[in-house]
Write a structure and sequence with these properties.
The chain is α+β, with helices and mostly antiparallel strands. It contains eleven helices and 19 strands. It folds into two domains: 358 residues, 3-Layer(aba) Sandwich (Beta-lactamase); 91 residues. The termini are far apart. The mean pLDDT is 91.
């Protein structure tokens, strides 16, 4: 594959979209000062409108990297500090006497992963949500002791930005970050995309039923804008990556020291790292190793029927971004990233995650069955009638759970298909008993033992 040959990239993107039944996608590659962006397919099945360079895709949790960069601009301006408790800036943050901005940005603050959905009949601002759901009693673990991926933590960062700037998060991210980068602000919830900038719809590929279903709209409350509400193109994501690439930070909205901190692992002293997600975490960006000792950074994002991926290598000035409007975009990315890595582009999900998937199948830990909790999310590991393990959460589909050596496991659709997530069981250091699990980077503590 030629790195900057648009025809070759477009052909490869089209081939993989057909293989993984993705209706539409964008791929952008940057090397030095040259960016090549290609597109394939349609924004929505049945609509027929093509994906163009300017089509906005819901980028899900890639939004968190933008929110982190926005917060670090405020740190550089002296409005915030990374390692001071946040209660003075955000009194409504009940855990603010113990939690710092660094911990929020690195998912080590101890807040739950999921955001409790506000009552649709009650107007709920971010400030009010923070007051009601982020007290010390809501912490999953003691701040600074473990990694547990948290959407709720980035809602708090959004509220913090609003308290300091006096602007809504959308206004702040637009004025301080997006506009200087030449990115037209577009959001999943509330306001539509800017006139002339259409948005892609999500699609769910159902393996067992041979169907593709259009997702008419994203089920995301505006409270969650800072953790998942941004829409952007692959070229927009690569423009954002330019903040971290060698020689590209001068004159940008984010200073060189802050950009470097976002690309510097912060997790040396935690008990449990981001198993199943990455090999480490900086201030808002995940760290992925390539097997040769080289670090790449980036973020993944999913919403209903959408999968987006950003990778960058600050050392050699390269970046790659993929936006795909189907839930099978993850499998497309997995295959594409192997091709990209072979020609020297930053890609992949890291050696640690690959090791979890590749570990040999093994008997399940004898005490792994039971109930685990992460805030409002309750996970149950139980043995089904066919003798196989299942991992289920109320309101979500159950996954088939395959245990692997080293207390690792992988999760699959019950209908079949490739592994979707990886994780591991955690053991108490003193007793050796299973006392928790990490599911795609989310830490859940055991609350009950037994089969359901």
């Amino acid at each position: 594959m030629s790195i900057l040959d648009a025809a070759v990239l477009r052909q490869e993107l089209g081939r993989l979209c057909e293989r993984h039944r993705v209706p539409g996608a964008q791929l952008a590659v940057r090397r030095a000062d040259t960016t090549v962006a290609v597109e394939y397919g349609v924004r929505s099945l049945g609509g027929g409108d093509p994906v163009t360079a300017g089509t906005a895709f819901p980028v899900g949790s890639v939004t968190k990297a933008f929110t982190a960069a926005l917060a670090l601009v405020l740190v550089e301006d002296g409005d915030l500090a990374l390692d001071e408790p946040l209660a003075a800036h955000l009194p409504e943050f009940g855990a603010g006497e113990k939690v710092t901005l660094r911990q929020l940005l690195t998912h080590t603050a101890g807040l739950a992963s999921a955001v409790v959905e506000p009552d649709p009949e009650v107007r709920c601002t971010r400030s009010r949500w923070v007051r009601e759901h982020t007290g010390e009693r809501d912490l999953v673990h003691a701040p600074g002791t473990a990694f547990s991926y948290s959407n709720a933590g980035y809602v708090v960062v959004g509220a913090l930005v609003e308290a300091v700037t006096g602007m809504d998060w959308r206004e702040a991210v637009g004025a301080i970050l997006l506009d200087p980068l030449g990115i037209a602000p577009s959001f999943v919830t509330g306001l539509p995309a800017r006139p002339g900038r259409p948005a892609a719809a999500g699609h769910t590929v159902r393996h067992g039923r041979n169907r593709i279903v259009v997702v008419p709209e994203q089920a995301l409350h505006p409270v969650e804008d800072p953790d998942g509400g941004l829409q952007a193109s692959a070229a927009d994501l690569v423009a954002f990556a330019g903040l971290f690439l060698d020689g590209a930070v001068a004159g940008g909205p984010l200073g060189e020291a802050a950009a470097a901190a976002m690309c510097c692992d912060q997790l040396d002293d935690v008990r449990a790292g981001p198993a199943g997600m990455a090999d480490g975490w900086g201030l808002g960006l995940a760290r992925y190793t390539d097997g040769g000792g080289r670090d790449r950074f980036g973020h993944d994002g999913t919403l209903d029927g959408v999968s987006c991926h950003l990778r960058l290598d600050p050392a050699d000035g390269t970046a790659v971004a993929l936006t795909a409007n189907a839930n099978t975009g993850q499998q497309l990315w997995d295959e594409l990233s192997e091709r990209l890595a072979a020609v020297g582009l930053p890609a992949g999900n890291g050696t640690g995650t690959a090791a979890l998937y590749a570990a040999a199948e093994a008997p399940s830990p004898p005490d792994c069955r039971g109930t685990y909790a992460n805030g409002p999310t309750v996970l149950t590991v139980q043995q089904a009638a066919d003798g196989l393990l299942r991992l289920a959460s109320e309101g979500s589909p159950a996954y088939a759970l395959t245990c692997r050596t080293g207390d690792a496991f992988s999760l699959h659709d019950i209908d079949g298909g490739p592994p979707l997530f990886a994780g591991r069981f955690l053991r108490d250091a003193d007793t050796g008993r299973t006392d928790g699990l990490q599911f795609s980077g989310r830490l859940a503590r055991r609350v009950r033992q037994g089969n359901g």
